[in-house]
Amino acid sequence: MVDNGGRLDEACVGDLVTLETALAGLRGIVIWGLHRDSSELRTIRLPIFSLGTLPAGPQRLDAQEADALISAGCGEHVLTPDDFVLGDDDGVIFIPLSQAQKVAELATSIRDTERSQAARMQLGATFRRQARFDDFLAARNADENMTFRQYLRSIGGAIEE
């Protein structure tokens, strides 16, 4: 995790930092700021999550903050060694390490449910039919406060909590 305060006027990570990160055995970099050297980073093939790219690196040398090696900010989040960072093509999430197993089990369940639904859709069973959408509309007519998520939960079809 690299905390550059969300700055958009400089890139703080490039190919050298990325190579060093890979050689240290880490599995990716999350940057609260920008990165550069995109072509080289694609060659290195270490996942990078940032606010975007900019060719210019820092032109200043700030004093290191006292907690720089034990915590890092990313937006409203402050991460410490007590946190687990997980990323994929859609972004990153921060999970308290103490909850990582529980989140992994829930995520696996959601993934499996969605894959099953998608497989049935590939065979022609629309999601509307799988979710009994007409029944939802009837339930919604009877109770205007009924949400689709509540309805799915009531029939065992909820995938997100």
Description:
The structure is a single chain. This protein has 161 residues and is α/β, with parallel strands linked by helices. α1 (15-23) packs parallel to α2 (38-44). It has two domains: 2-81, Glucose Oxidase, domain 1; 102-154, no CATH class. The mean pLDDT is 93. The chain contains six helices and nine strands. The chain has helices at 15-23, 38-44, 100-122, 127-130, 133-142, 148-154; strands spanning 2-3, 11-13, 29-32, 34-35, 48-49, 72-74, 77-79, 83-88, 91-96. The protein has a three-stranded parallel sheet with strand order 1-3-5, with no helix packed on it.
Q: What order do the helices and strands come in, and which of them pair?
A:
Layout: E1 2-3, E2 11-13, H1 15-23, E3 29-32, E4 34-35, H2 38-44, E5 48-49, E6 72-74, E7 77-79, E8 83-88, E9 91-96, H3 100-122, H4 127-130, H5 133-142, H6 148-154
Parallel strand pairs: 1-3, 2-4, 3-5
Antiparallel strand pairs: 6-7, 8-9
Helix pairs in contact: 1-2
What's this entry about, in short?
This protein is of the alpha/beta class and 161 residues long.
CATH superfamily of the largest domain: Ribonuclease E inhibitor RraA/RraA-like
Helix content: 25-40%
Order of adjacent strands in the largest pleated sheet: 1-3-5
How many beta-strand runs? 9
Proportion in β-strands: 15-25%
List keywords for this structure.
elongated; 2 domains; 19% strand; two-stranded parallel ribbon; Glucose Oxidase, domain 1; three-stranded parallel β-sheet; 161 residues; alpha/beta
